[in-house]
Amino acid sequence: MVAFAPQRTTNQLLRELLAIANQPAKNEFGIKKLEAEAEKIKKVNLVEYCVLSGAIATARGDVVGAKNNFERAMALDPGNLSVIYNYAVSLSILGSYK
User: Fold this and answer.
1) 3-state DSSP assignment of residue 92
2) pTM metric for this prediction
3) Which of 35, 81, 82, 90 has the smallest CB count inside 10 Å?
4) Which DSSP string do the residues of 16-81 spell out, in sequence order?
């Protein structure tokens, strides 16, 4: 019998990305691994992919990339509180409230 490792959920990936984003030195290797996981989610749920892409941009310190991805997620699923919350957390980490 072959045992498969469970796929990480979007929430797990977000927690890992936000932990990286809060570190003074960015772990590009860790970000790349999480970026590959996000690509898998893109085929299943575009909104979650956009949220993860926004978090990846946040981990890299890319304000414009974070805003673009979160705003795309909000356009795809207006009123999704999880998207709005994660966008706010990312803006807080980036120090960008405008």
Assistant:
1) helix
2) 0.82
3) 81
4) HHHHHHTSSS--HHHHHHHHHHHHHHHTT-HHHHHHHHHHHHHHTT-HHHHHHHHHHHHHHSTT-H
- Which tokens in the block code for residue 51? 């949220």
Distance of alpha carbon 52 from alpha carbon 34, whole angstroms: 9
Where residue 98 falls among pLDDT bands split at 50, 70, 90?
low
In the chain, the amino acid numbered 71 is E
- Work out the mean pLDDT of the chain and round it to a whole number: 86
Taking the C-alpha atoms of residue 89 and residue 68, their distance in angstroms, rounded to an integer, is: 15
Task: Say yes or no to pLDDT of 1 above 80.
Answer: no
